[in-house]
């Protein structure tokens, strides 16, 4: 990763760094970086701040092992604030919550990315008490069949006036599609990437 152009003089050597979950887009925390912290963040791929209280570099997770693995680093239009997208390895906050801004998880479309991660974790666990695990162990054909069934049920529900029922069927379809993607060793991100490429501005 290249070192972003930062106006260190304007900020007295420290810039705020907002950390965002690369998958769910949820804001996880805010810290401060000096040039050394930014350099270490880029080289180690682990978010590292400058602690204003301890007056030293501090890698998030150095004690808890809940590191923030860097995906990308962007600087704002004034060159004095950083936006870091990262994959969290465990809770971000020292209180044990996902975010330092409360214990609410990802919401809106970001929840789909969270659900995708939950499905992956369930499959990896191999816990046969989990419906997700049992479904995947039945094979690709069974997972695909469920997507087909839920697709038909969603279409049929759309023809009714009951939007609550339609929304419920759509939710079932999304869940089973995520399971099928994971059963195929893919993720929701793979499907989203295709959509992003299709809608990218033409050069």
Number of strands: 6
User: How would the global form be characterised?
Assistant: elongated
Biggest β-sheet strands, sense, barrel: 4 strands, mixed
Quote the distance from N terminus to C terminus: 24 Å
Mean pLDDT: 94
* Backbone structural class: alpha+beta
- Strands of the largest sheet, in order across it? 2-1-6-5
> How big a fraction of the residues is strand?
15-25%
Radius of gyration: 21 Å
User: Low-confidence segments, ≥5 residues, pLDDT <50?
Assistant: none
List the helices and strands and how they pair.
Layout: E1 15-21, E2 27-33, H1 35-44, E3 48-51, E4 56-59, E5 68-75, E6 82-88, H2 110-125, H3 131-137, H4 140-158, H5 163-183, H6 188-198
Parallel strand pairs: 1-6
Antiparallel strand pairs: 1-2, 3-4, 5-6
Helix pairs in contact: 2-5, 4-5
Notable features of this structure?
single chain; 203 residues; alpha+beta; four-stranded mixed beta sheet; two-stranded antiparallel sheet; 6 helices; 6 strands; 18% strand; elongated
């Amino acid at each position: 990763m290249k070192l972003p152009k930062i106006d260190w003089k304007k900020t007295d050597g420290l810039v705020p760094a907002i950390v965002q979950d690369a998958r769910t887009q949820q804001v996880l925390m805010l810290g401060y970086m000096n040039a050394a912290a930014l350099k270490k963040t880029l080289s180690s791929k682990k978010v590292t701040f400058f602690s204003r209280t301890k007056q030293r570099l501090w890698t998030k997770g150095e004690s808890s092992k809940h590191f923030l693995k860097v995906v990308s680093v962007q600087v704002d239009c004034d060159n004095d604030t950083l936006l870091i997208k990262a994959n969290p390895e465990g809770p971000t906050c020292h209180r044990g919550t996902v975010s330092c801004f409360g214990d609410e998880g990802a919401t809106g479309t970001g929840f789909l990315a969270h659900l995708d991660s939950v499905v992956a974790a369930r499959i990896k666990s191999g816990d046969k008490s989990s419906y997700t695990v049992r479904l995947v162990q039945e094979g690709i054909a069974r997972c695909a069949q469920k997507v087909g069934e839920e697709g038909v049920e969603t279409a049929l529900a759309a023809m009714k006036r009951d939007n609550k029922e339609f929304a419920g069927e759509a939710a079932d379809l999304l869940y089973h599609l995520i399971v099928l993607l994971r059963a195929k060793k893919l993720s929701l991100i793979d499907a989203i990437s295709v959509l992003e490429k299709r809608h990218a501005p033409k050069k």
